[in-house]
Amino acid sequence: MFKRWDAVAAEHILGATLRAIRTSRRLSLASVAEATNISPSFLSLVELGKSDITIGRLTRLAEFYKISFADLLGGADTTDAEIVRTHERQLIHSPAEGIDVYLLTSDTRRTMMPMLLVFEPSAELAEYGRHEGEEFVHVIEGSLVLEIEGSDLRTLETGDSAYYSAERPHLFRNASGKKPLRLVCVDSPPPTV
Prior knowledge:
Shape: globular
Strand content: 25-35%
Distance between the termini: 23 Å
């Protein structure tokens, strides 16, 4: 069974997991900082649960450690149909960006990784995403500005979808300063590992 992560618990659990992974590999904060371009003092704050982390930085750490989000969040393996109830979704909370990412499956070691992203008004990813494979987004509610390197900015409204190579740097932004943005995003294959 999965735990429902509230924002405060998520920071502490995620930080403790990152620290355990780093120390089990006998890596110093300085060596991880150098490899990921994230300052050692910031990494320390995250590991102690005293600071949140952006989605982009978390992805860089997962790539460096060669782990999946399931490794960070404790996903379970299953061979049967997987049902994830609303209250069972695992949350990656990024208050600095104003974004919540809910994993819509417990196991990110599969062919796809479906997610529900919720952006506060005017929220945006702090840095461009870029990973192997393809990405699909579908706007459930609100207005998404989609920026893909080498292309014009595109605004997707409720009901609109986009499908593109995830290897091209891409960025999401809530076009509204007053309303939240909710979208489904599917990465194939899941980033990292």
